[in-house]
Amino acid sequence: MPSTTGSPQPAATQQISLACAGHTRPVVQLSFSATTASNQYFLISACKDGKPILRNGPTGDWLGTFLGHKGAVWSAMLSGDTTRAVTASADYTAMVWDALSGRQTATLAHANIVKSADFCGADDAMVATGGQDKAVRIFDLGRPDAPTTAAVHDAALRCVKWSRARSLLIAADGARTINFVDPRARAVAKSLDLPAIANVSLSADGRLLACAAGRRICLWDLDAFKPVKDFAVDYDVSVAAVNPARTRIVAGGRADLLIRSCDFETGAQLDVHKGHHGPVHDACFSPDGHIYATGSEDGTVRLWQTAPGSEYGLWQLKPAAAAS
Question: Into which CATH architecture does domain 26-305 fall?
């Protein structure tokens, strides 16, 4: 993905994506679950309509809506065993839910807008949150009324994610700081400085951090804590995500609304897709890497095949015509 400043607008390549309806306002965050013991996985979406939705992963089919927030929902994540969900909202709360029944099990009160929340710790017994008050807070779900502050940023927090592989929280603000927080010590272990952070994502194994920052896509190895890729591009990147096999990067454009699929090693552009009618806010790969999901300002979730043309989920190949 070397810089191509001044190059002509890329031509869109054709792929039939699956549009998942159900939301009425911009979709701001998406997350696939891990694969369950029954070989299933799920997709959860956060939306400004205040109604996070749980879907069947391979098809995008609606399974249920979590009802209870009184403001925009900025973040929605599933626990490692997929039995619980946690959501973060503009109504000054994060909420924990039974993912099977949709029943709310805990309300985590804040003094300001909550932009992100994720389960963390052994057995996902804690929830970490971040938002407009600039603090990373950790709630022990056994004592949800007594949170502790693990880190404070200079700007409002955009994202808090849990790396199970590294047992660290990744907390990114909307300015230039990414902190790696140890939830047990309630302290910052390491920090990165990347100007103009738009979005951060983790690989499925939790060992690779992808960051969309201005007109750069930066990838960090969390085992070695060192950069492995740093690509300059000629468009404003809104999101970057890496597939589990580390062969592809999917990037969304902030202004041109395009979805780009690129080679992980070289950065060479492989596909360019149109489909959304608004900026792309988030993207993530399924746990098996066969598909990825994108969420947009246009209020839709779209599913795309990583390698178009194969049979998967609702993508079925047409039978060959019978010989005459």
Answer: 7 Propeller (2.130)
- Quote the pLDDT of residue 10: 54
DSSP state of 103: -
Burial class of residue 7 (count of CB atoms within 10 Å of its CB; 0-12, 13-18, 19+): exposed
DSSP secondary structure of 206-267: S-EEEEEETTEEEEEETTTTEEEEEEE-SS-EEEEEE-TTSSEEEEEESSS--EEEEETTT-
Task: State mean pLDDT over 71-100.
Answer: 97
Identity of residue 35: T
Q: Give the DSSP letter of residue 124.
A: G
Please tell me what DSSP assigns to residue 133: T
Across the beta sheet with 27-32, what order do the strands follow? 27-32, 42-47, 53-56, 62-65
Going from the C-alpha of 284 to that of each of 29, 90, 226, 255, 276, the distances in angstroms are 9, 23, 22, 19, 15
With left for phi above 0 and alpha for psi between -120 and 50, is residue 144 left, alpha or beta?
alpha
Given a cut of 50, whether residue 8 has pLDDT beyond it is: no
Confidence of residue 16 (pLDDT cuts 50, 70, 90): confident
Sketch the domain layout of the chain as residue ranges: 26-305
- Residue 131 contacts residue 90 (beta carbons within 8 Å): no
DSSP annotation of 122 reads G
Only one residue has tokens 């949800």, namely: 144
User: What is the model's pTM?
Assistant: 0.91
Phi, psi of 124 (to 5 degrees): 55, 40
Q: Which residues pair with 211 in a beta bridge?
A: 200, 218
Mean pLDDT of 115-120: 98
Say how far apart CA 110 and CA 133 lie, in whole Å.
Answer: 9
